[in-house]
## 1
Amino acid sequence: RGNRGGASGGDRKESNTWVPVTKLGRLVKDRYITSLEQIYRFSLPIKESQIVDHFLPTLKDEVVKIMPVQKQTTAGQRTRFKAFVVVGDGNGHLGLGVKCASEVATAIRGGIIAAKLSVVPVRKGYWGNKIGAPHTIPSKVTGKCGSVSVRLVPAPRGTGIVAARAPKKLLNFAGIQDCYTSSVGHTKTLGNFVKATFQAISRTFGYLTPDLWADQPLGETPYQEFSEYLSQTKKR
């Protein structure tokens, strides 16, 4: 009876090596795509969390909230756990993941993967004169989820992050040093508060400022550019 491990048993070392299952994963592993910006430029959907690990090895994760959710069944209630996880490298990349599972550890693990798949670039800017490195957000942005509405306002250098505990965590993970915030609604619902803040931060690249007006030709997508390589590896 001891030899019934099946797929989960066997050699543990093999499970650690990443075998990509998507075209994008194959291009990343074989170093045809060298930066996340190439993926963002063509809005390619990321389906494997290892792609983000490959480009952002310094990514940190933190559990924002774990809450029990219940479903009424004929036998009574069925309790599961919902985990909100935020990931970021403190240098312009931020992700938020939500996962529900019957065990807390499984929910956190799934939340980390979901957060990595939702990593977005965060644009930084200046409050006044363009001296030194960008330190705040480039313009006022708003995010909304449920009744919670969060507004982020650029702040002068040295202000720090003027925000509640949850948005402060997200802004720190995104690498923003100075920012004012204003929130309206039922911010006690922490899940919606965090989602609204994440939506606002991800909109920093949505506003087209004059310095982005230059016409840049898009070119071929990586799938078209490396189509010969993708067709070769498929035949093997």
## 2
Amino acid sequence: IMQKASADPKQKISENKQANLSIKSFADKKKKGKFAGKNQSKPFKKNKSLVETKKGKFKKNSDKKVNESRVEKAKKLKTTRKSQKTDVEVLQEAKKIWNQLRVHNIKNDVREKLIFDLIALLEGKIYKLSMKHDASRVVQCLAQFGTDSDRILIMNELKGHLPKLSQLKYAHFIVLKLLDKGRKNSVLCQSIFKDLKGHVGKLA
């Protein structure tokens, strides 16, 4: 007991100084933020898929109108893609009709239906298909077996392109077929002659 009481007073003073220094260094570090751990609050990022409730909480956006509009847009896009057939698909279907149409002993009502289907398939694409050697035969068949109104429809799509088509190996048969089958129709003949006017010398 006497040994403990007779401890060095200088040693006690130094220990007290060290304790005061450690407390000051801890306070300084806390101010600078060196002890900021994982539990420190971070800025909240608003999620667009979340909706704030009345109680201040957030839940997933379950708005039916938004979801329905997205589904409708996807359905419309799917239907438009299906309706827009490529040239290859159109040509394949046109060839199938052409193989049936060019049979000479076919009934008139069946032929009329095939011509109607072929026009519906080729409408708006006749000039583009006339430039291809295999598709030009389909257009030629349509000009041969179709009515005058069908030939006028073909001519309207080929207007301004007859001089060019007349110089092609396979497409020039379409022009010849229009001249042959449409010679009795004055409207068709005038539109053909008007298109070829000024180009006869080059084509001769």
## 3
Amino acid sequence: SRVRTHHSSTSALGAMATVFPADQAIVLGGGLAGMSAANTVLENGGNVVLLDKSSFCGGNSTKATSGINGAATKTQKDKGIDDSVDLFTSDTMKGGAKKPEVVKVLCGNSGADVDWLVEKFNLDLSLVARLGGHSAPRTHRGKERFPGMTITYALIQMVEKIAERTGKAKIITKARAHKLLTNSAGACVGVVYEKGGLDFQEHGPV
């Protein structure tokens, strides 16, 4: 198998939250979660390699038709909608969530995440609706028919633009990750992926 390695650069070390020196992060999956992670790495001065098993990025996120939930967003405040992280957390737990620690992070970050999408990617999320299971209007979208597609593609385009203009981002499609690389301490330090019948490696936090 072919192996590609990347040497550390001191400029990026401080920005990478990792257990070993690395100049890039590896993101698996090019849906909304993966693209959010990739853009966050780039915002904080790191390099990113994004792997997606499909021939194009987007994943299931592009099929979302309702919008994105966020509590205590700037849009809600502008519209006089009374909502809070605690209320969103309570609604989510009542809905059958089984991991309170995950719900706490999901709901706690939701408002800032929606604001980030609006401000960083110039997205229209000005329509706010109350959907089933929610105690307040908190599902944000624009006027498009498929808000998931609009949101996800905006993030994809940002990473693609940086990849085209600089060497800080790289998107590899038709790449099936099948093994995580670990060091002697058991920390994940890279990934093995298959593309075109050959195995490749990328080194860095995954």
